[in-house]
Design goal:
The complex is a heterodimer of chains A (about 280) and B (about 240). Chain A is globular, with a radius of gyration of 23 Å. In chain A, about 35% of the residues lie in helices and about 30% in strands. In chain A, the strands form 3 sheets. In chain A, strands 6-7-8-3-9-10 form a 6-stranded mixed beta sheet, with helices on both faces. Chain A has 2 domains: about 220 residues, P-loop containing nucleotide triphosphate hydrolases (Rossmann fold); about 40 residues, no CATH class. With about 280 residues, chain A is of the alpha/beta class. The relative contact order of chain A is 0.15. The two termini of chain B are about 20 Å apart. In chain B, about 80% of the residues lie in helices and about 0% in strands. Chain B is built from 10 helices and no strands. Chain B has one domain. In chain B, helix 5 packs across helix 6 and helix 7 packs across helix 8. With about 240 residues, chain B is mostly helical. The chains are: A alpha/beta (about 280), B mainly alpha (about 240). At the A-B interface, helix 2 and helix 3 of A face helix 1 and helix 4 of B.
């Protein structure tokens, strides 16, 4: 399998603080990879290393098979970045904001029209960026990040501070982009978002990856023996531990016809993170 | 370091579009023109009180210190403050391309303002060439100083605080040098004062001589010094800190 991102034994120190300790991760082409962790875990530092905004203190940071710092020019032609500190030219219109980047990447104007349609900003193309709503600004920033059809898209908390409806729109756009072949490296502390979008996730805690895997596989791996039983009549949910006593109870309810359903307790990604680190997100 | 004329052109077009909608920068750029209109209107026809050369020189120095230095400083600082610079750099724009876009727009605004003021105050067209030459030499060092202020300043607001000594040094000292001998001694080391000497001589119709070499040398030294200071600041903090 070809890996588009390859982090090997990466360490990053800021004066006395170690932000990343021996980080190892690989992302395959076509994946949506979620980098999950609480604030301060090292998510943004990792994106900065991958986009050559920072140098690692130790280890190797490869994107497209090459060390990022020695390959900046080619790297920036092939990546798109949307971070919480991305900015727009407030006084310029939606169109002019994109036109600048179209000129920089030598892209025809027809691509601006296409991307505006994709993010649903065609009707606002003459509006100044400062007059857009937060969600529209985020969509414009996403449009700018993918204007040059990057192979790899870095998203740092793309839906933080957005209302659920707008977040949903962004999710749809990201899934569409991924379907068209864009690999996405996403950092978030929103586990629901990661669960919905990502093919694989990595849990980052205090600068270290504590678990990596497919969301469904992780849920199976960390599934508990507990079950929830719903009885006919009052629809009451009864939580039970896996034990001989529970088995006997289930048999009784089945025999007297009062059992409506039995559910296994699948942990959420948030719960798995809590199990692994003892920390809440 | 990569450098593409096409990218610089794209950045310059963006600068001009943004400039026309930036009220802070627009007002600052228009002030020297407004003052030149105002002074010419007030003192027009009373050349014996305030000669037009003095009115022009005052507005010119205002343009050089406020526009050439401050505008580029504000433009750079604003890009840092609003995180647009980071996004540009992540799109493969080099620091030099970014700065060239800013320098181009600042240079054009300053030169155009100078020419407008030249005609508003009624200076003789025959001296326009020399005027553009001498003022351009000073504009270069003023723009470099402005770029340094922009690199140091984290926000548009802070360019005012950091840039205030620049106004004091390059606007007030040459202006007040006529009234105070100590200030005159200091002013002799500033590029603006020396430009003023050269221009006054030119506007009187006097030819340049070897006696003017120290003034020209001082202006040239300032270009070299500010370039060295720029290179040092750039190597220490870069454009995006």
């Amino acid at each position: 399998m070809s890996y588009i991102i390859d982090l090997e034994n990466v360490q990053k120190n800021f004066q006395k603080k170690t932000a990343l300790k021996n980080l190892n991760a690989k992302v395959a082409e076509g994946e949506i990879f979620g980098f999950l962790g609480p604030s301060g875990a090292g998510k943004t530092t990792t994106i900065k290393l991958l986009t050559s905004q920072l140098l690692p203190s130790a280890g190797s940071v490869k994107v497209f098979g090459k060390e990022v710092y020695s390959n900046k020019k080619s790297l920036y032609q092939q990546i798109g970045v949307l971070s919480d500190n991305s900015g727009l030219y407030d006084r310029l219109s939606v169109w002019d904001n994109l036109a600048l980047y179209a000129r920089l990447f030598e892209i025809p104007d027809s691509r601006i029209t296409e991307i505006l349609d994709k993010v649903g900003l065609t009707e606002s193309q003459k509006t100044e960026a400062r007059k857009l709503s937060k969600g529209m600004k985020q969509r414009l920033m996403l449009a700018r990040a993918v204007l040059h059809r990057p192979r790899l898209l870095f998203l740092d908390e793309p839906t933080a501070a957005l209302d659920p409806g707008t977040a949903l729109e962004i999710h749809k756009l990201l899934l569409k982009l991924n379907k068209e072949g864009t690999t996405i490296f996403l950092t978030t502390h929103n586990m629901e978002e990661a669960d919905k979008l990502c093919h694989r996730v990595a849990f980052l805690n205090d600068g270290e990856i504590v678990e990596t895997g497919n969301s469904a596989e992780l849920k199976l791996k960390y599934i508990t023996d507990d079950i929830t039983v719903i009885l006919k009549g009052n629809n009451e949910k009864i939580h039970l531990k896996n034990s001989p006593e529970t088995g006997r109870k289930l048999m009784d309810w089945m025999n007297n016809g009062s059992l409506l359903s039995v559910h296994t307790m699948e942990p959420s990604l948030e719960k798995i993170f809590l199990m692994l680190t003892g920390r809440e997100l | 370091m990569s450098f593409s004329i096409k990218r610089v052109r794209a950045l310059t077009i963006k600068e001009f579009k943004s400039f026309t909608k930036n009220s802070n920068v627009l007002l600052m750029s228009l002030l020297p023109i407004l003052f030149s209109i105002l002074y010419t209107y007030i003192y027009g026809g009373k050349a014996e009180d305030v000669p037009k050369t003095d009115i022009f020189m005052l507005c010119l120095n205002m343009n050089l210190s406020m526009v050439a230095s401050f505008v580029i400083g504000m433009l750079i600082a604003e890009e840092k403050e609003k995180n647009t610079l980071r996004t540009l750099l992540l799109s493969g724009v080099s620091s030099m391309e970014f700065l060239t876009g800013k320098v181009t727009v600042t240079l054009l605004i300053t030169v155009i303002t100078n020419i407008i003021m030249f005609f508003i105050t009624g200076m003789e067209t025959q001296y326009l060439g020399w005027f553009l030459f001498f003022s351009l030499l000073v504009i270069i060092s003023m723009i470099i100083i402005g770029a340094i202020i922009g690199m140091i300043s984290p926000s548009q607001m802070s360019t005012g605080v950091i840039g205030l000594p620049v106004i004091m040094l390059f606007l007030l000292i040459p202006m007040l040098a006529e009234y105070n001998d100590n200030l005159k001694k200091v002013a002799k080391f500033t590029p603006n004062y020396n430009m003023n000497l050269l221009l006054k001589q030119t506007f009187k119709g006097e030819a340049l001589s070897s006696a003017d070499l120290p003034a020209l040398a001082t202006i040239a030294v300032w270009i070299v010094l500010t370039a060295i200071l720029f290179a040092f600041t750039y190597s220490k903090i870069g454009i995006d800190k």
